[in-house]
């Protein structure tokens, strides 16, 4: 029988419209200043650079926060002029961190973040339904870490990354008038390290690296639904129409250089440069146990070209202290898409994006409250994916709101 072709986007997040499926929402204070990283004021620096823990003024620091992220994508077929819009729920990325300095030169900490994930939901009958109808992703990073301060101006830090995630993906199989649901859990391991410099009381320099993490789904569940159950035996499925599959998604490495300079005691500016090694995400392979739904010589294997390329992000932010209790923040950044118009995919829509950010911070003795927001302006794309037969124009909008809390008791 004819093969069923399956294009896969396993574990691909969709909250961040540039940067592939990386979600830059790991600190409320940082987002207000364009998500810059060289800020060693509390434990929120831990995710960005573990070495920064050594420069936190407080011996113990605890932070937690979350975001509401709203996004919408519109695709228009330029031949038929038919327009389709997503109906995505609000995303809620979270983070928490703790840093403690048991002895003068040594700091230890732990960071919890959700750096990949969201939900994209297209109409069930739209023209790209064979690629995706709905895709839900949740991911969690758990990072224990340590930092050692060599002297007054230099520290080194390292972290271990344990990642967990799961995906739930619906798509149509029009060849038999059916549907396919892919549901899986995945896990992976990685590491990070960095140097944090303070050569002058006015200047902080952060240099950090976060390794790739291969998210491996070893026992995914594929559920097929067809008008007639007689199709199940032909695909090697059980009576309920299910099969298992394996897949690996590479979450790529990230290099960051960050600077913060205090122009005056009340006013500072920050800048970051991020480099993402997306080239290693050239394809995605889905290996079914029995179902001949692939596109290779072995009909149980489906390979989807991705053809990602390395991408950069440029960030600039500022903070002004109105007094010892109230801080105002602004920022802007530009995030490159990691693929061309010829490789645009509706499972992980990505755009070259300009983002403006802002926020305020309140400090009352040991407690801090931060509020931030960001408005994204993704640039429209001319979709020309010949491999998927997918052509048209794609547009997007997105905005973020965040609330963070900090506690620095001593």
UniProtKB/TrEMBL annotation:
Belongs to the OmpP1/FadL family. It comes from Chryseobacterium defluvii. GO terms for molecular function: long-chain fatty acid transporting porin activity. It is a multi-pass membrane protein. It is found in: Cell outer membrane. Pfam families: Toluene_X (PF03349). One of its GO terms (cellular component) is cell outer membrane. Gene3D superfamilies: Outer membrane protein transport protein (OMPP1/FadL/TodX). The keyword Transmembrane applies. Keywords: Cell outer membrane, Membrane, Signal, Transmembrane, Transmembrane beta strand. This is Long-chain fatty acid transport protein. InterPro entries: OMPP1/FadL/TodX. Its main location: membrane. The keyword Transmembrane applies.
């Amino acid at each position: 029988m004819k093969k069923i072709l399956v294009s896969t986007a396993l574990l691909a997040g969709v909250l961040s419209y540039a940067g592939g499926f990386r979600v830059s929402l790991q600190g409320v204070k940082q987002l207000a200043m364009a998500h810059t990283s060289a800020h060693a004021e509390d434990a929120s620096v831990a995710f960005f650079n573990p070495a920064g823990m050594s420069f936190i003024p407080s011996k113990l620091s605890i932070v937690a926060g979350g975001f509401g992220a709203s996004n919408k994508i519109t695709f228009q077929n330029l031949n038929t002029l038919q327009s389709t819009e997503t109906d995505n729920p609000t995303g809620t990325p979270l983070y928490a961190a703790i840093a403690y300095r048991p002895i003068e030169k040594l700091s230890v900490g732990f960071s919890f973040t959700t750096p990949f994930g969201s939900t994209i939901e297209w109409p069930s009958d739209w023209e790209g339904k064979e690629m995706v109808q709905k895709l839900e992703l949740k991911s969690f990073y758990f990072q224990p870490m340590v930092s050692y301060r060599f002297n007054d101006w230099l520290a080194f830090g390292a972290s271990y990354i344990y990642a967990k995630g799961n995906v739930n993906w619906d798509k149509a199989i029009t060849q038999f008038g059916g549907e396919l649901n892919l549901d899986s859990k995945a896990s992976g391991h990685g590491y990070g390290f960095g140097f944090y410099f303070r050569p002058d009381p006015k200047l902080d320099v952060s240099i950090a690296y976060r390794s790739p993490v291969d998210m491996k789904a070893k026992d995914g569940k594929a559920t097929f639904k067809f008008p007639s159950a007689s199709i199940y035996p032909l695909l090697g499925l059980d009576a309920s129409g299910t099969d298992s599959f394996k897949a690996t998604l590479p979450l790529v490495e990230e290099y960051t250089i960050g600077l913060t300079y205090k122009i005056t005691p009340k006013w500072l500016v920050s800048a970051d440069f991020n480099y993402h090694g997306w080239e290693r995400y050239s394809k995605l392979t889905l290996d079914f146990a029995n179902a001949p739904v692939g596109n290779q010589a072995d009909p149980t294997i489906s390979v989807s070209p991705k053809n990602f390329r390395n991408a950069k992000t440029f960030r600039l932010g500022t903070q002004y202290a109105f007094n010892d209790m109230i801080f105002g923040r602004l920022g802007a950044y530009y995030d490159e898409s990691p693929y061309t118009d010829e490789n645009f995919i509706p499972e992980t829509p990505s755009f070259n994006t300009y983002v403006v950010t802002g926020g305020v911070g309140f400090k009352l003795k040991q407690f801090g409250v931060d509020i931030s927001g960001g408005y994204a302006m993704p640039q429209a794309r001319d979709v020309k994916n010949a491999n998927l037969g997918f052509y048209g124009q794609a547009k997007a909008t997105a905005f973020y709101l965040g609330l963070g809390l900090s506690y620095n008791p001593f």
